[in-house]
Amino acid sequence: MRSVLRTLAAGVTAAVLVTLGGVATGAPSGARAGDCVADGSVQTGAIFNQPHDDDNGDDRIHRHIVCLIDGAPAGSEIRVATYHFAHKAIKDALLRAHARQVKVKVLVDHGAPANADDGPIYKELQNVIDDDKRKDSWITTCLGDGVGDDNDRACIGNAKMHNKLLLFSQTHGVANVTFLTSSNLEDDDAPGNSGTDMWNSGYTAAADSALYNHFYGYFDALSGWENGQQTDPEDLNYYATAKLPVQAGNYTVYHSPRQEGSTALDILDKVECHGNSSGGTNPGNRTIIRVAVWQISGNEDSDPGTRIAQRLWELDNEGCYVDVVADIIDDDEHGPLRALLQKPQADYHGPEVREFNGDEPHGLHQKNMLIDGFYDGKPDQKVVFTGSYNFTYRSVRVNDETWLRVNDPGVHDRFLDNFADVRNAAHTCWQTSKPDACDGGRAVDADPPTPLNCHETADKYQDSGNVYLYGADYCGGANGAKDDSGEDSDYGDGAGQVKDFDNMTVSIVNTTGKTVEFYNYPDYNAGHPEGDTFCLRPGQWVNRTVLYGDNQGTWQSSISSHRLVDDPATECDRWFGGFHQPHR
């Protein structure tokens, strides 16, 4: 095991920038900066795909990679560190590069050759470029001896080598190009892949020797190839050994694994919610934190993913505006979803929370956090964190991961535009403060099959004028109470109560033409200032009230009264409810 980090990029000489070909720039210079396919140039900037949309580029990030590879001249070097390697066009581009005397070095997770999708592509390249690291070109896997899923083995950690990193000493006339993406190198032939089938992002840093040299040394550390000899690169405390984070020019770089603390928590602890003079919320200029990640997971308070979710809730409670969308948010007893959906303790509404996690043909695979406001002692900042890092135990403790901090308002705003698209595509809306959010975009089936879930009940009985209350998740079984009492909307007892159904409601469907407000004490929480409340829009539903609250009974099966709301924009500030969730 290595105990001391070798000098990063030792002996690396920056390639000379030539004047033929592409454009090198330290900042984005247009809406498509960072997209090599757009005009054959290489510029610093962000790039995004849109899954299952050929016209808008489900494979845009991968075509960008092919463009970068095809721009590498003879004598230059390409380095690739990737978790999956199952993309034919990228493999073919690397073979073309090798044929024109480009030095090609590829490092993948140990499990790739045995993977049904990765294996054939990997072996095609290996047939031409073997695994001898003494040569100018090679392809090989991590040495890791840890136990991961599906034969996964990391290089430095002991679970997965989860990076998606490409380095180009020169491409399209631009030297020192680094490309970092959330997208695994998989094409449409890999079913359910996390490349074209999911929302992803990427970032190109062009003509930046400081960042390139850092990642050049990091690639050496992953491969364990030093001074012409193979060493064991495993170091589960790499974050401390490498004295991270590292400042590389205008960028800050973070890697995992680390055995103490959490990179995301370190970053969030530098956020302040007030004190901005511009940006942030309008009105108020309160700091906004936006998160778009594949997974937030953990089943204990001490788990990094759960603690990150708790800190996001705390920041919202302090006055930040927190907006979270993820593919999967774990909902264990002490898990992240419960943490994010706790009752606010201050005058703020709680985080915006949306999730994919459905049977739709696409999901979210990004690993991004955006901060618009007060960060690291300075107000009015616009900062992006992007790379391969998820809010999970493995990403923090045992995987090989990278997160990159970009301080650039233009880059932030590119990511912000994409964030809005991703959030609007999410299948499930758990919580929002926006009266017009999460209420459209789903196909309605007027005659769904039985038994009905909440979504299907809302479709079948839309505009029927009833509120359906269930004692089971996802509106399973018969509804325990159907409110059809007219103006009172109180199940007919005239006192605003859910008659005979107190502390039994687990899921709800609103098919009235109005927003309904729910309370967890009788008589609309009269005499109970500690009581909680939420609103449910017309045509929407709540799948599991048990997930809301702090496990102290806040919403754990405790719907006790409800009423129709005439002016939800002024009477409600917190809405629960489904969007277009397809599964039970």
Description:
The protein is of the alpha+beta class. It folds into 3 domains: 36-235, Endonuclease, Chain A; 263-432, Endonuclease Chain A (Endonuclease, Chain A); 454-576, Gamma-B Crystallin, domain 1, CATH 2.60.20.10. It contains 14 helices and 31 strands. The strands form 7 sheets. Strands 13, 14, 15, 16, 17, 18, 20, 21, 22, 23 and 31 form an 11-stranded mixed sheet that branches. The chain has a 7-stranded mixed sheet with strand order 1-10-7-6-2-4-5, sandwiched between helices. Strands 25-24-26-29 form a 4-stranded antiparallel sheet, with helices on one face. Strand 20 (367-375) and strand 21 (378-387) form a beta hairpin. The longest helix has 17 residues, at 409-425. The radius of gyration is 26 Å and the shape is elongated. The two termini are 47 Å apart. Mean pLDDT is 86; it is low at 1-21, 26-31 and 484-497.
What is the gist of this entry?
The chain is an alpha+beta fold and 584 residues long. It contains 14 helices and 31 strands.
CATH architecture of the largest domain: 2-Layer Sandwich
Highest CATH level, the class of the largest domain: Alpha Beta
- Helical stretch count? 14
Taking all Cα atoms into account, the compactness measure Rg is 26 Å
* Contiguous runs where pLDDT drops below 50 for at least 5 residues: 1-21, 26-31, 484-497
* Share of β-strand residues: 25-35%
Major pleated sheet: 11 strands, mixed
Which structural class matches the secondary elements? Answer: alpha+beta
Write down the domain tally: 3
Average of the residue pLDDT scores: 86
* CATH fold type of the largest domain: Endonuclease, Chain A
Q: Find the count of extended strands (DSSP E, 2+ residues).
A: 31
State the separation between the terminal residues, measured CA to CA.
47 Å
- Identify the overall geometry: elongated
**Helix content, binned percent:** 10-25%
- Can you say what the CATH homologous superfamily of the largest domain is? Endonuclease Chain A
